[in-house]
Amino acid sequence: MLAATKRTVAVGAVATALVAGLAGCTASGDARTGGAEGGPGAAKEGVAAPKSAVRLIGDGSTAFTGAQPNLLKPQRLKPGEKPPQFVVFSWDGAGEDSQKLFSHFRRVGKKYDATMTYFLSGVYLLPEEKRDLYEPPQHDAGRSDIGFNDVQGIKDTVRELRGAWLDGNEVGTHFNGHFCGKDRGVGNWSVEEWKSEIGQAKSFVKNWKTNAGLSSADPLPFDYDKELIGARTPCLEGQENFMKAASTLGFRYDTSGVNEQVWPKKKHGLWDLSLQMVPVPGRAFETLSMDYNFMVNQSVTSQGDPSMHTFWGNQMRDGLLKAFDRAYQGNRAPLVIGNHFESWNGGTYMDAIEETIATVCVKSDVKCVSFRQLVDWLDAQDPVVLQKMRELGVGQAPAGGWNGFLGTPPVAPAAPPAPKNER
Known about the structure:
- This is Lipoprotein.
- By secondary structure, this protein is an alpha/beta fold.
- It has helices at residues 17-20, 101-111, 151-167, 191-206, 208-212, 224-227, 239-246, 291-298, 309-328, 348-360, 371-380, 383-389, 401-405, and strands spanning 44-45, 55-57, 62-64, 71-72, 85-92, 117-120, 170-173, 230-231, 253-254, 258-259, 266-267, 270-272, 275-279, 286-288, 335-340, 366-368.
């Protein structure tokens, strides 16, 4: 995030968000309208490498430090076993600014044994005076709809990214300039333009020391070329061409679209872990599982009626809990939730998310994990079992229970013995 004094207003989501909340997200400032995990009891694995094992990469902005600590080992479901209830909390444009929400939610995650995914905007590691290093597709060099950062902001963000990864969280990407809408927004970008944007997002992470003049600072403890396996596009636009580009660059998932609460499948070789439609208590429609979309449907602006703040936050919390309950008691499909480090409507959505984490992550058989850990678990499963679970609709529990639904498949009858030769 940018230092609070340098925030800029980003373009909001498309106009249809006012009806059903299908827009993506914005960055800082007032929103414009319009638009490795196992089953229960899985043991944690991976330990931090000793300093002697650290291998600096490039200018020392990043480093190989061994296996990531505090991950859970993915385990294949046994025949008839009920799947865990996965919940993914994720953050767009993750950065530490004067609100200190990044560091706050890191503490929340540790308190409730929840790991999350932080989608970093690359320009948050690029100082204002070096802005011309960014050459966004279809825009002039040095242009960004969310601005850039200052050196202190970069220091603070790197500190939180470093700690987050060591806690077991994932660092994904929200790309760079956050360009939305019809006028040269990311929805108009070609596959090659997406590859350029991805390459630049990686470059700003891999060279933040040089760009910010912080050569003596500690590195980020991961190789970003290997760490980066997933993303969410600005305003949920441009998913198709992004996925085509990402599928050639080692990505494993995307979360930039709109799904129902059913078991995921792959698209262009990537797991499609898009945001999901969830209830809005007291309203006749559902909206996306993201703080921005609740806000747009409730107040349109990020500075709505103060007397409604508590009600709106409770409405979001209760909607997410309803979505959780129908999965937990039903098809056990992973629940995907997206957020921003923002104090919209007095910070009520931050309160709603914290209360949701505190409620669901402590329940039996619930695993609050990052997208990386979820895809590790999905990849460890029998594809036939996953396909069968995809037959279950939103909130639909197996009619005969999980043991019958995912029980041992019938054994094929043995072939009859070959007839004996008569003499």
